[in-house]
Amino acid sequence: MKKLFYCAWALAMASVLMLTGCGSSEVADQSVDMSVRRIATENAASTSDMLEEARSAVVGISVSYPDGYVIGSGVAISDGGLILTNNHVVEDGKKITLYYADKTTGQAKLMWSDAGLDLAIISSSKVIPYLGIETSVPQIGEEVFTLGTPLTLEFKHTVTHGIVSAINRTLETETSSGVSFLQSLIQHDAPINPGNSGGPLINSQGQVIGINTLKATEGEGIGFAIPIETASLAVEKLKQNPNYQSAYLGIFGFDSDIALANGQNLSSQGVYTVSTDGPAAKAGIQKGDLVVKVGDYNIDNLLSLRKSVFAYNKGDNVLVKFVRDGQMKEALVTLK
């Protein structure tokens, strides 16, 4: 397997001042339109105009830890000051500082995160413009752009350009909870570097199609973005309920995509349960069960299982259908 690394940039305390440009002025750049609105990038007269407008919805992120800082990026796709980024950028951070396109700064607090999806939502102290999204699957060869903060905050709001190289990639990653898999990733060749994590991948209309998360260390031009559809589900939940936290089902497993990424071939669609915890275990779901439906949602792979939980809240009773020893069975699971 190719070596991969997340595109957040960790800095030791001794190098922070040299690399991050922390002495930036708080005088706002009045040439940047920061009025709260959905930025109508599709009406831009040129690509340059589209990118210039899109910048105002993108932030640089600095997250402080006891032994240093992590630099990343984020993007607003909704009103209300909610910023999307990667979980690995902000996880367990002590203080989150945002750097806006008008050269001012603000603070943020973590509202929601999911290590398995490598997504997080933070709330900005300053409400900023936001970009529209496009949830349909991009076409191979489609033109794309990245906006982010490669290497240092001095380079915040850097734009790079490329094409969609492949879709539906599955990659194994390491999280604070152990091994996980990112699925349905968009592979592209727009240059990304440490610090680009959490920044948007946008199409030629200026719509967000993904959140940049990692790249291959062996070779050039092999970057990956999480499809925006997954992240937008969590944003909508938070807009409805600022205290929203994901419900817990308690099913851990793998699917045919993950098996194929590890050199195995499985024909059945669904999630093979390797262990259960909490709600699923209490409802009688066991190791080896093939989960095929959660509530109203058909389960094709592990990502669809994760996404199905967004439709429900803690305490909801959800009917889970699974195959055991060739027979279809059901269990009523109370989500935690």
Describe, in plain words, how this protein is organized in 3D.
The structure is a single chain. With 336 residues, the protein is mainly beta. The chain has two domains: 1-244, Thrombin, subunit H (Beta Barrel); 251-334, Roll (Pdz3 Domain). It has seven helices and 20 strands. The protein has helices at residues 16-20, 47-54, 87-90, 228-240, 256-261, 279-282, 302-308; strands at residues 4-6, 9-12, 58-65, 68-76, 82-85, 95-99, 105-114, 119-124, 143-148, 158-175, 178-188, 200-203, 208-216, 223-227, 251-254, 271-276, 290-294, 297-298, 317-324, 327-334. It has a six-stranded antiparallel barrel with strand order 9-10-11-14-13-12. A six-stranded antiparallel beta barrel has the order 3-4-5-8-7-6. Mean pLDDT is 86; it is low at 13-25.
